[in-house]
């Protein structure tokens, strides 16, 4: 009996140890509008050269992550817009399965909805924490009205920090200026926040109302050397348009991204006690529980404002500026022209285009340093607590054009907008070997199942059947299905458009005449080929995707096979659309399922 009791105790400890090891602390890092070629190690894996085709980049901290863990170098996002892309990661579902195609508010009441990733992690015993940009525009409904729905137990967002003065820049509703209350609040006014907490507004309306001196906004633009992009034929100026270049009013570490890192560090290092964020107080980490942390960095999203020391260094480098040819523009799909036409860079001088690229890569380099600081704190905490740990680094919610195809911004299926590698680093080197490069396809829908599996979730159980992605640990060891293709769909800016990409080709097409949910869902099935506004690129001959061969007779069979596969998957394999209505109050679900099982990862061309 004594020996049996001893054996049971030992087995008990082994069981506890096994459970413990299955619940590592997880840090999920996501950047914004981040091109894959901003990282030297990615470029080396893809081209053999460390530098971007455009020129100089630096990324020592992400490079270090690739050395410590496993890089899924051929990862693609599901939608080339912030909100739908982030939804795909937080739900683990394709846009055509979640019904989130662009920037719509949505709710958790519709019949097809499922818990978000942090909610599932909480069910598995995790405490959950988020700081920075989230972009998951989820609401709940009460008495038919839209209500906020926090999905992280502790959530410290961008606006919270900006209102506490812990940012260099903000955009908010303005209800009071210099102690003077406004009769009518002003919506989404941009402003800078100086090191002493003073706001400098970029608003001619305020000047006309006598709320600030005339010329103040223009002077602020000059002070920070802002390069702004204004859509249409008007020139860029201080009032409107994306800030695609400039200098931060604050030093490194004291910007919004800098505070995302330091607030995260304060949370991690203040175990079992409160910590301050400006005038606000939050509870620090509970050292008795595993933690799921998400840092949503804003860099290098506009406004592109690298700190002065980073900007100065990158001014020394001259970059190759991509050029749009007449041949490319003439063969371009109409929907993709919509994005290009709205974001043409032809209004910028050659000097301004240099500034745009220099400041973008300087901003990336600054963010790289912040990632390293956060990672070091996380690993130090986990190891001090003798806890297993895992880092999921997602390089951008999508990419960003820097004059490629004649434009800036994102929203298109071109590679520069959609290719976003993932790096997973773990204390379990058997699952994620150091320095390993996986060249099989991966997708953003893989983030949720990867984190859940590491946390101990049994993904084969019915409660997880809604997940569309694969566990990256299985992708890494070769036990997951091998994808012949990746897919996605986005409706923002271009209008409804889906894509399917193999190692050699990418095909995209218009999926419907309008965005109205539930209407003409299966339109593309019988539409004329030309009405689909197709785009097909042969990456073997055309790696930069500039020659649309969708109508070339030589590629007729390829285009037909890819079109049919794409239609069957995104329109016919358990598609949902929801009339979310304003503020996400709608719950009516429309379905299409004429080709169930079409998404089988196989496409032989």
Question: What order do the helices and strands come in, and which of them pair?
Answer:
Blueprint: H1 2-22, E1 25-30, H2 40-47, H3 60-68, E2 70-72, E3 75-76, H4 82-91, H5 95-98, E4 106-107, H6 117-123, E5 127-132, E6 138-142, E7 145-148, E8 154-157, H7 158-163, E9 169-177, E10 180-193, E11 199-201, H8 204-208, H9 216-223, E12 227-229, E13 242-245, H10 256-269, E14 274-277, E15 280-283, E16 291-296, H11 308-314, H12 326-331, H13 334-342, H14 350-384, E17 389-394, E18 401-402, E19 408-409, H15 415-418, E20 422-426, E21 437-438, E22 442-443, H16 447-454, H17 472-477, E23 486-490, E24 497-501, E25 505-510, H18 523-526, E26 535-538, H19 556-571, E27 575-578, E28 589-592
Parallel strand pairs: 1-16, 1-17, 2-21, 3-22, 4-6, 5-8, 5-16
Antiparallel strand pairs: 2-20, 6-7, 9-10, 10-11, 12-13, 14-15, 17-20, 18-19, 23-24, 24-25, 25-26, 27-28
In short:
By secondary structure, the protein is α/β, with parallel strands linked by helices.
3D structure, described in words:
With about 600 residues, the protein is an alpha/beta fold. The chain has three domains: about 25-160 and about 250-305 and about 335-475, 3-Layer(aba) Sandwich (Alkaline Phosphatase, subunit A); about 170-245, no CATH class; about 485-590, no CATH class. Helix content is about 30%, strand content about 20%. It is built from 19 helices and 28 strands. The strands form nine sheets. It has an eight-stranded mixed beta sheet, with helices on both faces. The chain has a four-stranded antiparallel beta sheet with strand order 23-24-25-26, with helices on one face. Strands 4-6-7 form a three-stranded mixed beta sheet, with no helix packed on it. Helix 10 runs parallel beside helix 14 and helix 11 crosses helix 14. It is globular, with a radius of gyration of 24 Å. Residues about 1-20 and about 230-240 have low confidence and may be disordered.
């Amino acid at each position: 009996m004594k020996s049996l009791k001893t054996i049971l105790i030992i087995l008990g400890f082994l069981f506890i140890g096994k459970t413990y090891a299955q619940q590592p602390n997880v840090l999920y890092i996501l950047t914004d509008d981040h091109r894959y070629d901003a990282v030297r190690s990615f470029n080396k894996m893809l081209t053999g050269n460390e530098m971007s085709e455009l020129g100089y980049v630096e990324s020592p901290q992400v490079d270090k992550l690739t050395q410590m863990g496993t890089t899924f170098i051929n990862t693609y996002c599901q939608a080339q817009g912030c909100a739908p892309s982030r939804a795909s990661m937080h739900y683990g579902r394709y846009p055509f399965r979640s019904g989130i195609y662009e920037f719509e508010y949505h709710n958790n009441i519709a019949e097809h909805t499922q818990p978000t990733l942090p909610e599932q992690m909480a069910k598995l015993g995790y405490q959950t924490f988020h700081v920075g940009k989230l972009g998951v525009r989820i609401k709940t409904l009460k008495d038919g009205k839209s209500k906020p729905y926090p999905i992280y137990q502790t959530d410290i967002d961008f606006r919270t920090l900006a209102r506490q003065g812990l940012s260099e820049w903000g955009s908010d509703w303005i209800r009071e200026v210099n102690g003077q209350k406004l009769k009518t609040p002003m919506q989404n006014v941009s402003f800078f926040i100086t090191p002493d907490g003073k706001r400098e507004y970029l608003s001619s309306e305020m000047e006309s109302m006598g709320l600030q001196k005339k010329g103040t906004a223009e002077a602020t633009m000059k002070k920070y050397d802002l390069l702004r992009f204004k859509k249409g034929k008007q020139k860029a100026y201080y009032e409107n348009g994306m800030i695609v270049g400039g200098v931060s009013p604050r030093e490194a570490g004291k910007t919004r991204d800098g505070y995302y890192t330091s607030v995260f560090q304060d949370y991690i290092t203040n175990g079992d006690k409160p910590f301050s964020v400006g005038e606000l107080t939050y509870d620090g980490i509970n050292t008795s529980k595993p933690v799921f942390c998400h840092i949503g960095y804003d860099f290098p999203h506009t406004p592109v404002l690298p700190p002065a020391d980073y900007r100065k260094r990158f001014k020394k480098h001259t970059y190759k500026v991509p050029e749009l040819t007449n041949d490319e523009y003439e063969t371009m799909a109409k929907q993709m022209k919509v994005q290009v036409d709205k974001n043409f860079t032809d209004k910028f001088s050659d000097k301004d285009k240099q500034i745009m690229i220099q400041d973008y890569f300087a901003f990336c380099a600054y963010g790289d340093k912040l990632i390293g600081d956060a990672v070091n704190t996380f690993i130090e905490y986990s190891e001090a607590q003798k806890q297993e740990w895992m880092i999921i680094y997602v390089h951008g919610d999508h990419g960003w054009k820097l004059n490629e195809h004649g434009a800036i911004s994102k929203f298109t299926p071109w590679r520069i907008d959609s290719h976003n590698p993932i790096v997973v680093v773990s204390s379990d080197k058997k699952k994620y070997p150091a320095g390993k490069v996986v060249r099989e396809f991966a997708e953003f829908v893989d983030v949720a199942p990867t984190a859940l599996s590491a946390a101990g979730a049994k993904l084969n159980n019915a409660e997880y059947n809604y997940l569309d992605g694969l566990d990256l640990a299985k992708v890494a060891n070769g036990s997951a299905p091998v994808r012949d293709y990746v897919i996605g769909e986005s409706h923002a800016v271009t209008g409804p458009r889906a894509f399917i990409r193999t190692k050699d080709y990418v095909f995209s097409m218009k999926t419907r005449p309008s965005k109205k949910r539930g209407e003409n869902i299966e339109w593309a099935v019988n539409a004329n080929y030309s009405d689909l506004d197709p785009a097909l690129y042969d990456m073997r001959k055309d790696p930069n995707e500039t020659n649309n061969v969708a109508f070339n007779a030589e590629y007729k069979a390829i285009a037909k096979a890819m079109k049919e596969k794409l239609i069957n998957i995104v329109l016919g394999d358990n598609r949902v659309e929801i009339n979310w209505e304003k503020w996400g109050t709608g719950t009516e679900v429309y379905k299409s399922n004429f080709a169930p099982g079409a998404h089988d990862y196989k496409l032989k061309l």
